[in-house]
Amino acid sequence: MEWETTTQNRFKEMVAKIPLFHRRITEEAVINRAEEYAKKRNAAQVQEQDVISAFFLDVPSPFYSMMVRLLEQSGFDYKKYGFPKNKKS
């Protein structure tokens, strides 16, 4: 599936900052999930909201704070999509 250029560039920048041990699995998982979210929206391309949703909804909680920091450093504006959402136990 095609990706919006700015979103793809930010994603690549963010993935490059992920520790090497986790980089490949994170990249594959987020790409797959972001493309699923874009398809559910009937979108022609993956956009920022799809990548952000993939990270927030699928990243394990031990990596949550690092993910938020990397999203911010890479220029993703997750707050405009309502993240982080409160998790109830």
Summarize this entry quickly.
This protein has 89 residues and is mainly alpha-helical. 62% of the residues lie in helices and 4% in strands.
Q: SSE order in H/E notation?
A: EHHEHH
> What's the tally of helices?
4
- Could you tell me the mean pLDDT? 93
Strand order of the largest sheet: 1-2
Helical residues, percent: 55-70%
Q: How many β-strand runs?
A: 2
Q: Which class best fits the helix and strand makeup?
A: mainly alpha
The major pleated sheet works out as: 2 strands, parallel
General shape: globular
Please indicate the percent range of residues in DSSP E strands (runs of 2 or more): under 5%
How many domain modules?
1
- Low-pLDDT runs of 5+ residues are none
Distance between the termini: 35 Å
Compute the CA-based radius of gyration: 12 Å
